[in-house]
Amino acid sequence: MKKLIVSMAVLLTFPLFHVASIEAEGYGWGYKKNSDHTLPYIGKYEEMLEKYGAYYADKSGEKNVYLTFDNGYEEGYTDDILDVLKKKEVPATFFVTGHYVESEPDLVKRMVDEGHIIGNHSYHHPDFSVISKESMKKELEDLEKAVAEVSEQDDLKYLRPPRGIFNEQTLDWSYELGYLHIFWSLAFIDWETSKQKGWEYAFNQIMDQIHPGAIILLHTVSSDNAQALERLITELHKQGYAFKSLDDLILEDKLPEAVYGYE
């Protein structure tokens, strides 16, 4: 596979998230943003995702949305986010790293105890496209063991690749290891903790891009997200959207056999 160099020129025409000026053996996940409340265009990625059962959205056309959060470190807002999710009875998936599990075991336990899903974001957050299959396996297994040690969830089946970098090989390897990639169809720059712009910014970014079937990527380090979340859920409910779990989206016949212990 040819190397991909993500540059500012690419960012201007095909927005990418988590990735800036990276040279790697893979692709940086991205899509063409729109504000017409329809699925964004993902180009050549569509065929690759279909081949390995990966998801970036719910294509059913139903007004379902899926909240997902990436957690690499804690800024003090996750409890607030969990409080809102509990109050509004909304499920979410939290993709955590080893550092997060080590530093915030009580929060990980709370996520699971309150019915949320823990997803695998790797132990050390490496670029999967430049490491071996064995190294990737160890990253995923170490994170799974860490989560099992602090919570009741001992089986992780959803994977979000670090920095959104992937290629056909990493999709294949993760599928063999029993994981499905979960990308996203709605996101914005929310992880820069020194550049928060207020809850209305987060609210408007999501409402401008919202569409039926959206998998929404947020970061719990954002004070904007924490303050906007309850308002966002209330407004989307008013517009007829239902908040679903990834388990509602993923059909069992699409899960890798390794998930069922048939390795």
UniProtKB/TrEMBL annotation:
Keyword Signal assigned: yes
Species of origin: Oceanobacillus kapialis
NCBIfam families in the record: spore_pdaA
Signal peptide: 1-19
Protein name: Delta-lactam-biosynthetic de-N-acetylase
Domain NodB homology: 63-244
Annotated keywords: Signal
PANTHER family: GLYCOSYL TRANSFERASE-RELATED (PTHR10587), PEPTIDOGLYCAN-N-ACETYLMURAMIC ACID DEACETYLASE PDAA (PTHR10587:SF78)
Stored SUPFAM superfamilies: Glycoside hydrolase/deacetylase (SSF88713)
Gene3D superfamilies documented for this protein: Glycoside hydrolase/deacetylase
One Pfam family from the record: Polysacc_deac_1
